[in-house]
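Continuing from the previous page of notes. For each protein in this section, the sequence appears first, followed by its structure tokens. Read the first protein now.
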Amino acid sequence: MRRKFRMLFNFILFRRPAMFTLIALTKNVRHLILAAVTVCTLSFAFVPAASACGPEFECAETYTVQAGDTLYGISLKYHVDLWTIEYMNYVPNPRLLQVGQKLCIPNITPKSAPRLSIVGVEAGRTVTVQVENLAPNQKVDVRLGKNGTLGVNGEIVGTATTDANGKFSATYAIPQALQADSIIAIRVESQTGRYAYDWFWNQP
């Protein structure tokens, strides 16, 4: 009996610090696990929805992805930069769009910005444009260029003078070097540095 008591006394006396250390470590591990679970939960809670539009712009339209759609094709359709659509909709992989997925098409053109609209195209021959929100009574250059250039350093196909409201409309001949291109970039530039650009299908 005395021997058992001594063994118990020695265990409590010499092993107690180790026991307390083990208990303390166990508590710390529990706290770490709890913290990790909390962080993961909050991360999932604040992941933005795939179809949510970013805070910088408003949705001009919501597009539903159809079979065969690509982000590039959608950007061409709405004249919005591909990367803008990708960023605004938090698209993790632009090659993996899902049929039925909702995409916010942002309105990124302020009303005061120069605006270039394609009114009509006679394939391989002419393009008719309408421009607004430029400075009044000012000369502007109209350029046509290869697709993807935004018309920068394109061939000057004509000049125009805006009216008192900063608008003009005109028809321009498509240069021979671009007549066989299916997509052509167009750009208007004013003397004050304001500009607008667009593109059009050069097909029958």
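Done with the first. The second protein uses the same format. Note its length before scrolling.
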Amino acid sequence: MKKISKRFEELIARGKELYTDIPSPKEIEKNTKTLSDELYSKSVAWKLSTKNLLKQVYGESSEYYKLYMGGFGGDKYLGTESKYKISLVLGVLESAMEEYELGLTDNITHLLAIELFESILDQANQLLKKGFKDPAAILGRIIIESTLKDLCEKNSIEFKENEGASSINEKLKNEGVFTLHQFKICRVNVELGNTAAHGQFEKYSQRDVQKMLDYIEHSLLTM
């Protein structure tokens, strides 16, 4: 996170320098100041770096990226409006950095993760309908563990990358994200997933797996 914040700061500083150095339309018209090749190269590099950062952090469908494209996206050359456009994109960068540092992108990341988990859940349900309860249970286990880690990240709870679902479930309870009731229900489903992962397929039924997948869909993924 610090690395991205620093990158925002660097690009804002470079943008302010460009705004100062690049001639205004009136200066170009009166021929009192010109756009040098060196300054043009710096402006192109700044445009590309800014575009890449906004795309990586917020995505092409975000308002920040769209505003950038509106300001610079269609231009092959800076032209006489460049000072105005640099000012516009500087505003976009400053707002984007502020929201990033406030953690307002976390929800976007969480929603994207939920979308991925729902896709895997669909696969698990299809397998179960065809009678393949064991791979469905293993997929369910993967979704539960991944979702628990995602909830930790969303709530700024530290965990080790190789930490198991049982331990993470305990942390979510201790930090008040899960109630005792939610913790107990999650524990039951984590245990079922572990049983499947250890190849003890005779210890649970197709109905048990269906309950597990229903829990994921109607409880876990709605948090």
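What the second structure shows: Residues 2-101 form one domain. Residues 145 and 165 are 5 Å apart (CA to CA). We return to this in next week's lecture.
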